[in-house]
């Protein structure tokens, strides 16, 4: 979608649909206020009114509610509603009259983000053309000093939509090799990026027992994807994304109902890959190390079995007491490897536990960290982007639940207690002294239900990670 910022009169917008936000107690601009039905335009949050004034394209009035309650999230929702209404009206171009918001960079970011995310569709595997109209352009009518902000928002929102494409692509196409190829495409787009993909021979040579164990039941070759971005930063931020391209649960087989959603068990890797692509396109002054372990988790005669003992990359041994707790095994290798490669702060993002959905639903991602400053930065980034994170505690007693009987650790707690936290406690064993934070997005990577992303794959984490990188670069 094209995005432009122009300083023109509303009647020169040259768009199929003109949108205007209306606060409670506010008045419509003079030319629009004279249109038939303008007196009944609704200002309650999320309510829409369609006007057809002479000399203008159709005008959609979007209720913003009370002025003091209008934040970026409300504007993202309002923009999404306008985009959806534009599609219903078969508009290919949308202009948004910024009005009093014209010099507000946060407002410009929110409106661009809301429109682009709401206009997303995934039609790659449809044999017929989509029936509904698609928005092709968005114009912000306002002061030109928000142009840079609008362009930045466009870059990041498009990256989030690409992450949604990766999530939506079926597992017979989006294999570990497919993710590796995407990483190579990203690296080819910037001189500041480089990529290395470790295949099975290199994984065996290095002793990455977690990734090898999870992959041994399927026919797809595992990959450890390493992207580096050299933006001239003073320290290196490490991003680790879980890339299980299909998760059956292995021998500890999942129920069949809803298993098709497990093609999205690589949502963490999708978020990391496309966040790196956006960071490079934005040219942020930061050094990044991104590590994405990618594999399938399949049952077969060669699959890892409950009770097997493996040796992780760090040298710690693990009893695999449930093969459906596989994400922590591959992340353990990736975290230890990223720390060894020089990451000075680590953030992993993964669809890791069903327990986080029970605890937090889809509204918040679960956040566990060994460093208060890093945890606070992630919370701030989530509040800015609407990709919210709620911090859960760490405690030595949780570690006790993850101790093994015949090995150093178990990949499953001895009791059904605090499943999200005990999984994070397991991961903490592999980061050493490096400040680290874990984001469990099993409840928020899809089925979140917000107007701008709906209930499907939403690319959760892309905007949060980009915002975190901005903070890190400051």
Question: Topology of this protein?
Answer:
Elements: E1 2-6, E2 17-23, H1 30-33, E3 48-51, E4 59-65, H2 72-88, E5 93-97, H3 105-118, E6 137-141, H4 147-168, H5 176-188, E7 193-198, H6 200-206, H7 209-215, E8 223-230, E9 236-241, E10 243-247, H8 267-282, E11 287-297, E12 308-311, E13 317-320, H9 327-340, E14 345-350, H10 355-360, E15 365-369, H11 372-385, E16 389-391, H12 396-400, E17 409-410, H13 419-428, E18 436-440, H14 462-473
Parallel strand pairs: 1-6, 2-4, 2-5, 5-6, 9-11, 9-14, 10-11, 13-17, 14-18, 15-16
Antiparallel strand pairs: 3-4, 7-8, 8-11, 12-13, 15-18
Helix pairs in contact: 2-3, 3-4, 4-8, 5-8, 7-9, 8-14, 9-13, 11-14
Describe the protein in words.
With 474 residues, the chain is an alpha/beta fold. It has two domains: 153 residues, Leucine Aminopeptidase, subunit E, domain 1 (3-Layer(aba) Sandwich), CATH 3.40.220; 300 residues, Zn peptidases (Aminopeptidase, 3-Layer(aba) Sandwich), CATH 3.40.630.10. The chain contains 14 helices and 18 strands. Helix 2 packs across helix 3, helix 5 runs parallel beside helix 8 and helix 9 packs parallel to helix 13. The radius of gyration is 23 Å and the shape is elongated. The model has no long low-confidence stretch (mean pLDDT 95).
């Amino acid at each position: 979608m094209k995005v432009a910022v122009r300083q023109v009169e509303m009647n020169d917008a040259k768009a199929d649909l003109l949108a205007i936000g209306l606060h409670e107690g506010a008045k419509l601009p003079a030319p629009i206020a004279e249109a038939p039905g303008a007196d009944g335009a609704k200002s309650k949050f999320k309510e829409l009114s369609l006007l057809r004034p002479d000399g203008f394209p159709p005008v959609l009035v979007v209720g913003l509610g009370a002025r003091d309650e209008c934040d970026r999230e409300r504007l993202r929702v309002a923009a999404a509603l306008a985009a959806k209404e534009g599609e219903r009206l078969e508009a290919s171009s949308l202009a948004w009259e910024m009005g009093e918001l014209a010099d507000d960079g946060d407002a410009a970011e929110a409106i661009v983000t809301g429109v682009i995310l709401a206009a997303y569709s995934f039609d790659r595997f449809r044999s017929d053309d989509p029936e509904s109209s698609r928005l092709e352009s968005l114009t912000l009518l306002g002061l030109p000093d928000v142009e840079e902000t609008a362009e930045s928002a466009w870059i990041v929102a498009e990256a989030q939509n690409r992450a949604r494409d990766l999530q939506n692509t079926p597992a017979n196409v989006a294999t570990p090799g497919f993710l590796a190829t995407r990483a190579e495409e990203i690296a080819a787009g910037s001189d500041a990026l480089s990529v290395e993909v470790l295949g099975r021979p290199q994984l065996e040579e290095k002793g990455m027992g977690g990734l090898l164990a999870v992959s041994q039941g399927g026919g797809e070759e595992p990959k450890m994807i390493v992207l580096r971005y050299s933006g001239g930063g003073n320290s290196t931020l490490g991003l680790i994304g879980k890339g299980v391209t299909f998760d059956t649960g292995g021998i500890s087989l999942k129920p069949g109902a809803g298993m098709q959603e497990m093609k999205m068990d690589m949502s963490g890797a999708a978020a990391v890959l496309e966040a790196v692509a956006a960071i490079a396109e934005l040219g942020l002054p930061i050094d990044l190390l991104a590590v994405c372990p990618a594999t399938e988790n399949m049952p077969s005669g060669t699959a890892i079995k409950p009770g097997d003992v493996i040796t992780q990359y760090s040298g710690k041994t693990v009893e695999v007491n449930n093969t459906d707790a596989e994400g922590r095994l591959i992340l353990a290798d990736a975290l230890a490897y990223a720390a060894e490669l020089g990451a000075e702060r680590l953030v992993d993002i993964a669809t890791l536990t069903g327990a986080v959905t029970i605890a937090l639903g889809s509204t918040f991602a679960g956040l566990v960290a060994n460093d208060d400053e890093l945890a606070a930065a992630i919370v701030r980034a989530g509040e800015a982007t609407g990709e919210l994170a709620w911090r859960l505690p760490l405690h030595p007693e949780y570690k006790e639940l993850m101790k093994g009987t015949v090995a150093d650790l178990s990949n499953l707690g001895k009791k059904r207690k605090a499943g999200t936290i005990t999984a994070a406690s397991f991961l903490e064993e592999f980061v050493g002294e490096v400040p680290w934070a874990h984001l469990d997005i099993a409840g928020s990577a899809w089925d979140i239900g917000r107007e701008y992303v709906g209930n499907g794959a939403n690319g959760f984490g892309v905007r949060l990670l980009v915002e975190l990188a901005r903070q890190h670069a400051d």
